[in-house]
Amino acid sequence: MQQFRLKLYVTGQTPRSRGAIRNLKRLIEELIPENCELDIIDVQAHPQSAEDDKVLATPTLIKELPLPPRRIIGDLSDTNKVCEGLEIAIGDVRLQGERL
Amino acid sequence: MITKSANKGIAKLPTGIPGFDLITLGGLPKGRTTLVAGTAGSAKTVMAVQFLAEGIKNEDQSGVFVTFEESPDDIRNNMVSLGWDIRQWESEGRWAFVDASLHPEHDEIVSGSFDFGALQARVEYAIAKVGASRVAMDSLGAVFTQYQDRSIVRRELFRLASALKKTGVTAFLTSERTNENGKIARYGVEEFVADNVIILRNMLEAEKRRRTIEILKFRGTMHQKGEYPFTIIPRQGVVVIPLSAMELKQKSSSLRITSGQAEMDRMCGGGFFRDSIVLVSGATGTGKTLMATQFMNAGAANGERCLIFGFEESREQLFRNAGGWGVDFAQMEEKGLLQVVCDYPEIMGLEDHLLRIKHHLDEFNPHRVVVDSLSALERVSTMKGFREFIVGLTSFIKHKEVAGLFTSTTPNLMGGTSITEAHISTITDSIILLRYVELLGEMRRGLTVLKMRGSAHEKTIREFTIDGSGMHIGKPFQDVSGILSGYPSCGPTAELDRVNSLQQEKPNG
Fold this sequence. Notes:
The complex is a heterodimer. Chain A is an alpha+beta fold. Chain A has a single domain (4-99), classed as 3-Layer(aba) Sandwich (Glutaredoxin), CATH 3.40.30. Chain A contains three helices and four strands; from the N terminus they run E-H-E-H-E-E-H. Chain A has a four-stranded mixed sheet. The longest helix of chain A has 17 residues, at 15-31. Chain B folds into two domains: 3-245, 3-Layer(aba) Sandwich (Rossmann fold), CATH 3.40.50; 256-500, Rossmann fold, CATH 3.40.50.300. Helix content of chain B is 33%, strand content 28%. Chain B has a nine-stranded mixed sheet with strand order 5-4-7-8-3-9-10-11-12, with helices on both faces. A nine-stranded mixed sheet of chain B has the order 17-16-18-19-15-20-21-22-23, sandwiched between helices. In chain B, helix 12 (350-364) packs parallel to helix 14. The model of chain B is unreliable at 1-7 (pLDDT under 50).
């Protein structure tokens, strides 16, 4: 199975940040629980990381592995879109993200 | 107790952009954001960079440049020719980029709502890192093309602008316009930085590009109104020409200087004033360049430095002509009393000519300056541009308190005035007309002093001749009328005089 390396940029403790984190964690648990490395970065605490990765918007999910790299911007409420971005086959799993 | 600060109003931050601080009456409103809107190619980016560059160079104020459009590397490279070494400033910790330009390799998709929290954190971090007091953002419109949901982008940019205000920096935000006369900026950007708006224009008028800057509004503080021309100069950047904002504070002298013609001095009531501008108008070949040559020769004879801008003849031609009238330009130049600057009017726009003239005036610091001829410059500009040029030129010259002599070529051989005169006559202190006079089958030359501000002058029309030793002013035309209108007619005395003179000449011939 493919190894995932994900980075999620959020801004502080806003509802949007928390929602994105919840949505992403649920999706990982359901679909790729064994082989995912997730790094959650608060831009207010680590602005230099955001600078290095040229991140503008939060939340921004960066898929570093598997290649090619890809970015998903937003609260990650649209699971289909997130899976499409991460290139994960949803199969029969039905997941509903939390909209904000 | 009444404190002073309550009454102070909005402070301004002098930008250091030449001319800009004059039309803004002191600079940009301090601690606020100003939107600078313009069409493609209206020099928004150059000005944004310059806003930071001048702060670093002159005021020791650091700056943060947020770029939404060009990559930092492009900006670093493009600005080298303007004399701004951004890499050097970055290494000194006085300049920081926030790269918010579009990176296609990021391959972004959008799922749900988002904010610009990361961008805001990066900008605030950069401001803190270099201790910036100036921030430039170029250009806001580009953000709208990165994201589909414009309402989110608008809301987030507004939030960013508010956050900037809280940090106390003075911000210079650019945005594009789709055309020169439409709404202020694309995507309604002006709505969230509505305090201060400046518009840059790059208009095509009569096949000539003309750059102007206009301060549309400064909330709660004063500024000059209307459009001001500006130009971009290598190694200097944007230079605004603050025509009507220039102060009329030059001193006026009652000191007289010689025109190089004893008779002309008498006609003017004792010579030209030392800091006055004289316009010499005449058709081609009437002796305008000769008057200018004698004017400079007389100056050099008194040890005064003379500067001539030739727009009609080459250096060689000017030297040869002067030689033909017994004036040695080469020797004057050797002594450091003469500088000759010859250019084709077409090589650049009038704004650039004006700045070049100013540059030479500052460098050579002359006592006398000649422009030969103004009408040659008229053809490279629009009417409006030309009028502004004349005002600017006169103001520069008067500011330096030097004597100026401008020539102007009338389009008609006989009589007539030129457009040049219409624009300049009220600005110049004296006007001398040189005219061809057709009398009884002969082409003769006449001159008159039309105007001499602050002094009495002779009102007659004098005949003059030109030979190898220059100009010789003779007696007034007697009994001839209509010279200036171009249709001279003579009364009986003139006819009799001529017949008499013919008879007198016979025995000799």
